[in-house]
Amino acid sequence: MHPSQSELLQLKNLGLASVNILHSIGIRTLEDLRRVGAVEAFISIRGRGINASRVLLYAIQGAILDTHWNDLDPDLKARLVDEVEELMAGKDDA
């Protein structure tokens, strides 16, 4: 196991499949994840043709905040979804 994989696996909400998906978009460390953010990471994942659900979006945000995804504030979850939808709509218009 690569050391960065081990680092990401220590975060809440992220299992091996999620870590492998993050690696596929160039995220290898918690620092990378924080720099990119949950919304951009999720959009990049979707952009690679990976059919990811909102739960992955929440899981990534929870990993950044060291919180179980199910414990995220409902308003935060709604804002994350809104941001994703706005940014993805903008990419469709481009």
Automatic annotation (TrEMBL):
Stretches assigned to the TfoX C-terminal domain = 5-83
User: Record's Gene3D superfamilies?
Assistant: 5' to 3' exonuclease, C-terminal subdomain
Q: Which Pfam family would be a valid example here?
A: TfoX_C
Question: Out of the domains of life, which is the source?
Answer: Bacteria
Q: Which InterPro entries match?
A: TfoX-like, TfoX_C
List the PANTHER family hit by this protein, alphabetically: PROTEIN SXY
Q: Give the protein's recorded name.
A: TfoX/Sxy family protein
Q: Which organism is it from?
A: Microbulbifer celer
Q: Show the taxonomic lineage.
A: Bacteria, Pseudomonadati, Pseudomonadota, Gammaproteobacteria, Cellvibrionales
